[in-house]
Amino acid sequence: MSTEATPPVSYAPFINIGLTLGIVQLANRFELERPEFVPYLRMAYFTTQLLALSVTYFIRTKITEKNDKTVLVFTEAKSFLEPKNVETVTTTVKDYDLKKTNEAFQQTGMAILMMSVMHFQFGYIRPLLLQAVMGLRAVATTQLFEIYIMGKPAVGPLARPWKKGMFDQTGPAATPKEVKNLEKKEQKKKLVKGE
Predict the structure, then answer these.
(1) Could you read off the pLDDT of 166-177 as tens digits, one per residue?
(2) Strands 86-92 and 71-77: what pairing?
(3) Residue 91 to residue 109: CA distance in whole angstroms
């Protein structure tokens, strides 16, 4: 009999598919692509994106207020194409979280830009409705939201560093003993260079 705990099942892909299919059915049932609904869909989309940016900014202010200077050491691939070529990253929890909020701002900005081109240049309407809902869901399911808004502790799946996706090559965070050893090695390097 095995005593290993099975990892929790992620229902996120099923929820995303269910939401997408539900929104498509809603659009079909109420004919939301009629011209009189388009201004409301635009308003809904841009309002939810503004809300997503506002929540991310609020999280950023909470990170700055908390000012967590706990050292975080982990390894990550230098390039997606070369997962074996890794580097050790030493940062603080505050800096790591601020980097993640910057990434969220960039992702939201790119999504708004792409959606604007798709809608205003090519006339697509249905993605406005889909992204109005999915954009908020994306913000509400981030680790930053769960830690800084929901108040969950940063343990288990919320422990830093966070995986970016299924192909992420980020290694686990270093233990305090490994951090001390790394600091000693860095001091030795400085001494050797100084002599």
Answers:
(1) 444 455 555 566
(2) antiparallel
(3) 26
